[in-house]
Amino acid sequence: MTTLPRKMLVDGEVGNSGEEEAHYDFDLFVIGAGSGGVRAARFSANFGAKVGICELPFHPISSEVIGGVGGTCVIRGCVPKKILVYGASFGGEIEDARNYGWEINEKVDFNWKKPLEKKTDEIIRLHGIYKRLLSNVGVKLFEGEGKIVGPNEVEVTQLDGTKLSYSAKHILIATGSRAQRPNIPGQELGITSDEALSLEDLPKRAVVLGGGYIAVEFASIWRGFGATVDLFFRRELPLRGFDAEMRAVVARNLEGRGINLHPQTNLTELIKTENGIKVRTNHGEELMADLVLFATGRAPNTKRLNLEAVGVELDQTGAVKVDEYSRTNIPSIWAVGDVTNRMNLTPVALMEGTCFAKTVFGNQPSKPDYIHIPCAVFSIPPLSVVGLSEEQAIEQANGDVLVFTSTFNPMKNTISGRQEKSVMKLLVDAETDKVIGASMCGPDSAEIMQGIAVALKCGATKEQFDSTVGIHPSAAEEFVTMRMVTRRISGAKTMTNL
Asked: What does the pLDDT read at residue 105?
């Protein structure tokens, strides 16, 4: 990029380089200290910027007035969720252990309070670490609610109600998103993922509404801890947007673990009774539950930022509209992470925060790269993917797509007796031999897929996969031993509405 576009990108103006620059309290002020905001603040400070950041006071369950440094992922998302997934997995491990010779009593006691307490201890520890990360690079942290009152001015309302006003050359919005509830009678009787991670008591009967990551993961967690779980979702299969073949594998595994699936079904009403919550569906069914989780999507946190007053454009979902450098239509205001509703994953927010800092303060204009981003759904067992799904590959391909699959009984299951297959899949562009997509559902899939993601990022071909020596005995070696084409699909476009 030439010097002139760089000047336009950062300063939003051309031809005024000789004028004296206005004085600001901060070079950068960040609203929101989650993953993206903290990364942008730290890296900007490392580039020499004077940085301020504000965040709501800490609490495990968020609201419009409480949150905490670390954000959703650390406090009420990925981290505590994964801790509970680990805990829930031991139920199946204990069953499997018996066939490995472990003499375990038929009745195994479980204390829900213990993992809950350990989880809370860990998020408090991480909250402190994130605060120290900011302090160590000289970022000034303000505890309170931030809003934008001008293109270069923010206002922070502190805990005691006093308001502080600061000017900043650049303002970064990194306020993330929050869970939504469906608009049905009795919706106040349900909970969201926030509350689900801080339950005082483990439910005996849980109903989950939703077919995405959060729904599938909590269904797996509660079933793993012994609850009866009913999962309701609108489509024929859960996990819309993922590879249809792998979605079917996940659905099979959920049922195999004892979760009751209700495809193409929605909830229409919740009614409080003496015996729990009566749940009604759009098919006229009724069932009783101790707890109902709404995992029906999230909305960007933009309502209280005063963005309309300064003219920042939002899309129809309330997300901040940005360009490829994360800049809004107001030259001094930027946004990263879930508040932009691009690809809502913590590592993506980190990438966007890094690119922002490089662009604005590092003299390295950088666009986030959304190609070959791996992700995982921590069902039990987990699903992990990178690159294109089969449906996407067919839609985008100029020529034929080769599909390689491997379905096998994990070595551990041959002794434990668990009837649960692992499934792996590679998609290859027939003309170039490049691997354009990979999926796995089975134990350790997320750990395995991280390495596969590096290969795809480097443009690896199927021949290079085949010439790589496997690690034996491991599940991962299947990715380099799939020699036979399962099917070849012509470049003709097809659509699916599962």
From this structure: 84
By the 8 A CB rule, do 210 and 186 touch? no
pTM, to two decimals: 0.93
Query: Active-site residues: which are they?
Result: 472
Contact predicate 227/204, CB 8 Å: yes
Per the annotation, binding residues are 82, 146, 175-177, 210-217, 297, 338
Angstrom CA distances, 34 to 70, 175, 474, 476, stand at: 5, 7, 36, 33
pLDDT tens for residues 157-204? 999 999 999 999 999 999 999 999 999 999 999 999 999 999 999 999
Annotated binding site for NAD(+): 210-217, 297
**374-490 adopts what CATH topology?**
Enolase-like; domain 1 (3.30.390)
Domain 26-179+299-362 matches domain 374-490 at the CATH topology level: no
Q: State residue 239's pLDDT score.
A: 98
What's the CATH number of domain 182-295, 3.50.50.60, 3.40.50.2000, 3.40.630.30, 3.90.79.10?
A: 3.50.50.60
Residue 64 is predicted with a pLDDT of 87
